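[recover] target loaded
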């Protein structure tokens, strides 16, 4: 995170393996014996007794998982900057470079900052022009000292005091003293122009700390560089290049004996030998190999599209599409930044987390939030960014197999509603939230969707064991509904939603059945395509899929969230989760073509929930109305999502306080308004609002390995090109016309 401050710049550091704790086993040994009793109590509708037993004998030990943590801050304290004018900071999405520029009494200053994927370092370039010189100190602050506050500046950029939690005034320089830092923190010279920081992660919930981390800052300049104690001083410079490397001792979710110091020394030393222009050029080239695949514009560019972002957000209700298009491209930038290569998957705050105790632990919440992060990734032509998620699921299948055996006595693997760096899979938090066994199953459906967009057979072979293992767990744990309505999960819950005051635990909520219907169906198709000889397994899956309890419409005309018609009596009618509408989006089991009665019931449910909620929940509502072809309703929700109550001036989703899933979910909803890909069809302009009469997208992906270029004017389709496998057939629907288009020998065709 780059703050763009004038007299004291702050760069907030994250390293995506710097989590609390160490490898641990959270499975409760009493769960296996308790679960049959829990199931009986649920069948007898003694829900509170069931929840009490779950709390006592089933929940994980510890009851919470490990939080994600930040890697501290670098502060650049500048001297001799006076009478600042023409201040501007910006992020260029096409180059992924953050810039801060301003003039002072003695000349102009420019800072360029980027994270280089090829060199695996943060690069900071600083320049002074005219008679100005760069004179500044670089200091490190450990994330534990963040509790002392942050410096605040008044309108003249003069420092003013803040207060710590006790209300006592504090001095920032004093807060950097060693007596305010963890005992194991080392900040020292590592050569004539380098600072080396070595620290340790934190313990949490009785799980001891088990990671070390290192940050190394290297500098080169035409001025003077000196290391004095734990401060890097740079004086009389016109140009400075800094490279910052960070690493931890994390090797895998069971191995933590890496050497972060050796890693940061290697990365930073290799990078600092290169010229700034060389680092910048390599960074931009790597960025554009992914970012340059996709272009999007909505409406005719206007002066408002060039206004400062905070002003555009404040006027989101008057936006004619330019802000929505920017929001989509910003999401592509975020996805490329936080889910790449050998890195970790995107978590709740992504790699922009500020401290060691982030909201909701910054974990992987897999009852919606992690899945939502990846909703738009393939459509955005960023399929490579799914790889970290694939590895996460592969690792969950290992820890989840232990949970399946220990808790349920079942084959296969299971993950509940949260996980962390250590791939914990037991239910956490408490029976109101944690005893939901569908997290792994939903993630498997996300992986199937990625396959369906690319149709890479090797990838399908890779993920098929994950799908099969997830199915095996449910084949062993599904039970017959005592009222004869079919197979159901028990115990479970509809994510985070109480059906009676203080009670969420139940059997067979709608979302479980819908996720399983997809999982079983996808697995059967994968079984066929991979030629798995295990025919008995396929037969059992097909039989179980056919016996799952069906979706139901309640007395109010709503799609029931539970097997029982409890919706009207549920204590929170406008609950943020809309879990029972999974079948509408991201699935397509309930759709406007095949199940109009269920779509009508889904609309009743969604109207009851309301249009605006937390950031990510608003994004889900946007996607749902778009999927149902309601462009004006979707656009109204989008205006609320893009407005100042749910989007910060830097375009981050205001959950509150902040979650990245709203950005990704909102982007998925915008794309659903323009192109949809479900049910064997590609739907063109299915929910186009009146506010977007003109627009163009190039490089958008749909299922079947197809890439689209689309342009519309006056709300009418003007251009549509398709690229993909030679001779592939694509069913394209535009309004009432359905056309089967066949790609030519070069893999292209055009709608005429």
């Amino acid at each position: 995170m780059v703050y763009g401050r004038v007299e004291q710049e702050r760069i907030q550091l994250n390293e995506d393996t710097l989590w609390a704790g160490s490898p641990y086993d959270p499975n409760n040994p009493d769960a296996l014996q308790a679960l049959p009793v829990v199931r009986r109590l649920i069948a007898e509708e003694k829900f509170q007794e069931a929840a009490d037993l779950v709390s006592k004998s089933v929940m994980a030990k510890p009851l919470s998982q490990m939080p994600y943590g930040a890697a501290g801050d670098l502060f650049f304290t500048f001297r001799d900057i006076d009478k600042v004018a023409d201040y501007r900071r910006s992020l260029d999405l096409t180059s992924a470079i953050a810039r801060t520029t301003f003039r002072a009494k003695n000349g102009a200053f420019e800072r360029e900052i980027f994270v280089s994927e090829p060199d695996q370092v943060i690069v900071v370039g600083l320049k002074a022009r005219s008679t100005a010189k760069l004179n500044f100190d670089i200091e490190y602050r450990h994330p534990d000292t963040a509790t002392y506050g942050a410096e605040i500046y008044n309108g003249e950029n003069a420092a003013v005091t803040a207060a710590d939690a006790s209300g006592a005034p504090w001095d920032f320089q004093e807060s950097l003293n060693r007596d305010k830092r963890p005992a194991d923190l080392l900040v020292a010279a590592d050569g004539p122009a380098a600072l080396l920081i070595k620290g340790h992660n934190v313990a949490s919930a009785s799980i001891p700390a088990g990671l070390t981390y290192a940050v190394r800052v290297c500098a080169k300049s035409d001025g003077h560089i000196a290391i004095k104690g734990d401060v890097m001083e740079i004086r009389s410079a016109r140009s400075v290049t800094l490279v910052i490397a960070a690493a931890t001792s994390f090797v895998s979710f069971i191995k933590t004996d890496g050497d972060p110091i050796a890693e940061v020394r290697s990365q930073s030393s290799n990078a600092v030998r290169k010229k700034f222009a060389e680092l910048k050029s390599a960074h931009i080239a790597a960025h554009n190999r992914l970012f340059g695949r996709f272009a999007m514009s909505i409406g005719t560019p206007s002066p408002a599209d060039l206004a400062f972002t905070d002003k555009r957000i404040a006027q989101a209700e008057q936006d004619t599409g330019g802000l929505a298009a920017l929001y989509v491209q910003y999401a592509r930038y975020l996805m490329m930044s936080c889910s790449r290569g050998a890195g970790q998957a995107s978590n709740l705050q992504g790699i922009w987390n500020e401290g060691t105790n982030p909201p909701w632990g910054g974990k992987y919440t897999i009852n919606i939030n992690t899945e939502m992060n990846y909703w738009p990734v393939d459509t955005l032509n960023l399929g490579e960014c799914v790889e970290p998620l694939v590895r996460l699921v592969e690792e969950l299948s290992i820890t989840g197999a232990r949970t399946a055996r220990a808790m349920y006595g079942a084959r296969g693997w299971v993950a509940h509603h949260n996980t962390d760096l250590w791939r914990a899979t037991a239910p956490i938090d408490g029976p109101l939230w944690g005893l939901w066994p569908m997290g792994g199953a939903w993630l498997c459906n996300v992986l199937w969707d990625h396959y369906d967009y690319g149709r890479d057979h090797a990838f399908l072979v890779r993920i098929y064991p994950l799908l099969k293992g997830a199915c095996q767990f449910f084949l062993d744990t599904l039970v017959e509904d005592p009222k004869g309505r079919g197979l159901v999960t028990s115990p479970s819950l509809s994510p985070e939603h109480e059906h009676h005051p203080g009670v969420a635990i139940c059997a067979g909520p709608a979302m479980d059945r819908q996720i399983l219907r997809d999982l079983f169906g996808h697995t059967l198709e994968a079984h066929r395509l991979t030629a798995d000889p295990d025919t008995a397994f396929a037969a059992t899956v097909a039989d179980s899929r056919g016996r799952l309890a069906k979706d139901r419409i309640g007395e109010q005309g709503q799609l029931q969230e539970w097997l029982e018609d409890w919706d009207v009596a549920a204590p929170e009618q406008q609950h943020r989760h809309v879990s029972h509408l999974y079948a509408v989006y991201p699935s397509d089991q309930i759709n406007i073509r095949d199940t109009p009665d269920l779509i009508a019931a889904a609309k009743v449910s969604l109207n009851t929930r309301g249009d605006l909620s937390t950031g990510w929940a608003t994004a889900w509502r946007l996607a749902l109305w778009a999927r149902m072809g309601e462009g004006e309703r979707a656009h109204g929700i989008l205006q609320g999502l893009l407005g100042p109550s749910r989007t910060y001036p830097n375009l981050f989703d205001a959950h509150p306080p902040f979650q990245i899933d709203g950005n990704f979910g909102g982007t998925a909803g915008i794309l659903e308004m323009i192109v949809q890909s479900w049910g064997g069809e590609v739907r063109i302009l299915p929910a186009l609002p009146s506010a977007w009469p003109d627009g163009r997208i190039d490089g958008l992906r749909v299922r079947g390995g197809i890439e689209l270029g689309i342009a519309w004017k006056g709300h009418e389709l003007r251009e549509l090109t398709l690229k993909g496998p030679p001779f592939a057939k694509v069913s394209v629907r535009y309004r009432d016309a359905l056309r089967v288009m066949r790609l030519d020998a070069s893999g292209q065709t055009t709608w005429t």
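[recover] notes: Residues 387-408 form the longest helix (22 residues).
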